[in-house]
Amino acid sequence: MSKFVISVMEGDGIGPEIVKEGIKVLEEVAKKFNHTFEYKYVDVGGCSIDKFGVPLTQETIDTILSTDALFFGSVGGPKWENLPHHLKPEAGLLGIRKALGAFANLRPAKVFNELVDASTLKREVIEGIDLIVVRELTGGIYFGEPRGFSQDRKKAFNTMVYTDEEVRRIAKLAFEIARQRRKKLTSVDKANVLEVSQFWRDIVIDVSKDYPDVELNHMYVDNAAMQLVRNPKQFDVIVTGNIFGDILSDEASMLTGSIGMLASASVGGKVGLFEPIHGSAPDIAGLGIANPIAQIESLAMLLKYGLKLDKEAKCVEDAVSLVLKMGYRTPDIATNSDKKVNTAQMGDLIAKAI
Amino acid sequence: MSKFVISVMEGDGIGPEIVKEGIKVLEEVAKKFNHTFEYKYVDVGGCSIDKFGVPLTQETIDTILSTDALFFGSVGGPKWENLPHHLKPEAGLLGIRKALGAFANLRPAKVFNELVDASTLKREVIEGIDLIVVRELTGGIYFGEPRGFSQDRKKAFNTMVYTDEEVRRIAKLAFEIARQRRKKLTSVDKANVLEVSQFWRDIVIDVSKDYPDVELNHMYVDNAAMQLVRNPKQFDVIVTGNIFGDILSDEASMLTGSIGMLASASVGGKVGLFEPIHGSAPDIAGLGIANPIAQIESLAMLLKYGLKLDKEAKCVEDAVSLVLKMGYRTPDIATNSDKKVNTAQMGDLIAKAI
Ligand SMILES: CC(C)[C@H](C(=O)O)[C@@H](O)C(=O)O
Ligand SMILES: CC(C)[C@H](C(=O)O)[C@@H](O)C(=O)O
């Protein structure tokens, strides 16, 4: 019997509705495996702006740093879109990633057998996709200095920068992950044009010397965007920088047709952050019809990567599969022959399946 | 009867083979419409490195600037991959784009009816796609300064920078193109994170005031990468910066399944550059089996955008369609029931169809 402290960030839009279902499921896990979870609720993003005037406070950071993992809903919405840069909800998300030192964003793109037909790609192209994008998350053009506007406002600029250490640690982590999977790593860059990419590539090659059992190849980012469409099954682990990873991981998730179902883990720092890859979906917020599965999959990642509770993680994943197999679907993934349920019902079903 | 001077750059890999077929077709156009084309052959990329030691010479630039349009094959190959940055074949391509002032890269993604099934996407998702990516081509992170490495080689960086003028002229051009099409423009950026993107967005909005008849919307680049997979038909014209355009246009072309068939035009400068979007395909170079259609489609763009010969351009496009309708295919797009032809035969057929 172990005790864990989890910080919980419900956030904006559909965040609160789906995080609630995640906690419901976690409580079942607690019972079944004899754990105790204590929750510390925090605000980041729009909800923090509304309460404190800023998207992230130092107190929130401190609270999160005192816990074992951060279970994260979603941030953002039209209400806050016109605020200046450093006051946008997104600044809260970037700020907490940085504060936690969560330099690696793991984004698995997998296909749920039951949902293969929801993809716009042909069944034979996507059936069995099992790839993971390892995105560098606290460097690159997202954080590079200098950034801003020229004094006369006739020019604006950002800097894509990587240090040796930043590239080395994400490369190592990606090789470690590849080693536990199909042992194939694709590093994505734009080394034919950018010096920062050439630098990235050279260091990845250097790190590869410690992983002779992993097959490494390099791909330009434009080609990677094409290859994901042409033959996504060729990939096992993809490692890349912050903005390329942002773009490619979203593309990869959409290929599966299961975007409402996919989770991500941001790790490598003091405390891991676990969130759905979808956004806050303000258009359906409050209606009780949002699909909580991505949030519940994030919970599985939290258990696995955040608390090293592999058995418990697997149990959550199996529960989701079972409920899908039984034919239950929220509106976003339902076809006519499915049993339609709302957010809370889906949460109940999965909790019961634990 | 008019006379035009065309600079011709055959280039590396399959370049020479397919450019030859383009010229074959152009000579038929000359006969039919009573034009004279004079050719000036130049070298850029690997072939220039082999001859002159650098990927682009001032003499080549001067020659091209003295002509009416540049018909461009492809550059690059493993032979030159390990050269330093400024000596790579790609540096020649970037150099000539910049020297010509060709700031707008037009990349139509269309589906050839006869090839719908070559796509990895479902027929109903892609049938009738007709979108064009307008990519800024001489600015952004490709050319931004400062760039390079720190002295101790512990850090590398590039700068994504846009000036007011650069954004304004590409935005105008994109609105003009949208106006002649379905009047829908999507501007793609990452304004929730990057100042340079916020700047881009503000100027696009400013320019939009002169185009009240065109519907403008904004999309983050990660979302655009998803939406292209989810529902590509929602797009008419996409305008975006250099690197986002590089990634998204390649993704968009691959959706159609017709990547060996698509062309691009780089315009806005003194002389336009017209080239296939595919690369130099060193693996099949010299075998005489490469698909010349993208190169011939580039010819159609050259006639249309470079020489303002709309009728002639349409004639080339119709000839390609006709030959496809008759069932002729190069190996890359052939299925069992097709009539298989090689590069030269495909060129002959299209030339005859003129
Ligand atoms: C909201 C935004 C700042 C964020 C990012 O770009 O990192 C999001 O797109 C993501 O991928 O988590
Ligand atoms: C070869 C490379 C420099 C080039 C680019 O990135 O612009 C290519 O990918 C393209 O899109 O034309």
From TrEMBL, chains A, B:
Which reactions fall under this protein's catalytic activity? (2R,3S)-3-isopropylmalate + NAD(+) = 4-methyl-2-oxopentanoate + CO2 + NADH
User: One GO biological process from the UniProt record?
Assistant: L-leucine biosynthetic process
Annotated Mg(2+) binding lies at D222, D246, D250
Kindly list the places in or outside the cell where this protein is found, as annotated in its UniProt entry.
Answer: Cytoplasm
Q: Which GO terms describe its molecular function?
A: 3-isopropylmalate dehydrogenase activity; magnesium ion binding; NAD binding
* Binding, NAD(+): 77-90, 279-291
Return the annotated site residues (Important for catalysis). Answer: Y142, K190
Q: Which PROSITE patterns match?
A: IDH_IMDH (PS00470)
According to its UniProt record, the EC number is 1.1.1.85
Its UniProt pathway annotation is:
Amino-acid biosynthesis; L-leucine biosynthesis; L-leucine from 3-methyl-2-oxobutanoate: step 3/4
Q: What is its main location?
A: cytoplasm
Pfam families with a match to the protein in the record: Iso_dh
Source superkingdom: Bacteria
* Record note on cofactor: Binds 1 Mg(2+) or Mn(2+) ion per subunit.
Q: Which family does it belong to?
A: Belongs to the isocitrate and isopropylmalate dehydrogenases family. LeuB type 1 subfamily.
Describe the protein's quaternary organization and the partners it interacts with.
Homodimer.
Q: What does this protein do?
A: Catalyzes the oxidation of 3-carboxy-2-hydroxy-4-methylpentanoate (3-isopropylmalate) to 3-carboxy-4-methyl-2-oxopentanoate. The product decarboxylates to 4-methyl-2 oxopentanoate.
UniProt name for this protein = 3-isopropylmalate dehydrogenase
